[in-house]
């Protein structure tokens, strides 16, 4: 159950993983093989990120869009780690 939704202005990065472009903020954490939770702004091409199925997908590129946009986050009652798609990269709510 969603307990709270947060909005703010944030810088936008585009992270390409397995041919898909994910739009995220530089501080948003991804689970990286051998490093653990790593901010998107610290990702490097070749880093392997975890998926919901336990697969590891390579980061292909990271692009700073130089855009500031409204970004959203939410808190749920029990779990604080989410996968953005069934086979997508693992991400975590900030502050979790």
Walk me through this protein's architecture.
The chain is mainly beta and 96 residues long. It has a single domain, classed as Endonuclease - Pi-scei, Chain A, domain 1 (Beta Complex), CATH 2.170.16. 0% of the residues lie in helices and 61% in strands. The protein has strands at 2-17, 20-24, 29-32, 36-39, 48-50, 56-76, 81-83, 90-92. It has a four-stranded antiparallel beta sheet with strand order 2-1-6-5, with no helix packed on it. A hairpin with a 5-residue loop joins strand 5 and strand 6 (56-76). The protein is globular, with a radius of gyration of 13 Å. 18% of the residues are buried.
Give descriptors for this structure:
96 residues, mainly beta, 4-stranded antiparallel sheet, two-stranded antiparallel ribbon, 8 strands, globular
- The percentage of residues in β strands lies in over 45%
| Number of domains as seen in the coordinates | 1
- Radius of gyration from the CA trace? 13 Å
> CATH superfamily, called what?
Hedgehog/Intein (Hint) domain
CATH topology: Endonuclease - Pi-scei, Chain A, domain 1
Low-confidence stretches: none
Number of helices: 0
CATH architecture call: Beta Complex
- The rounded distance between the terminal residues' Cα atoms is 16 Å
CATH class: Mainly Beta
What is the H/E string?
Answer: EEEEEEEE
């Amino acid at each position: 159950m969603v307990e709270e939704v947060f909005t703010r202005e944030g810088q936008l990065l585009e992270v390409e993983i397995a041919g898909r472009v994910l739009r995220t903020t530089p501080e948003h954490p991804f689970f990286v093989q051998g490093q653990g939770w790593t901010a998107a702004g610290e990702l490097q091409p070749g880093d392997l990120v975890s998926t919901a199925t336990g697969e590891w997908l390579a980061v292909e590129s990271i692009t700073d869009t130089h855009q500031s946009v409204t970004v959203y986050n939410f808190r749920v009652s029990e779990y604080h780690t989410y996968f953005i798609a069934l086979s997508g990269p693992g991400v975590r709510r900030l502050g979790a």
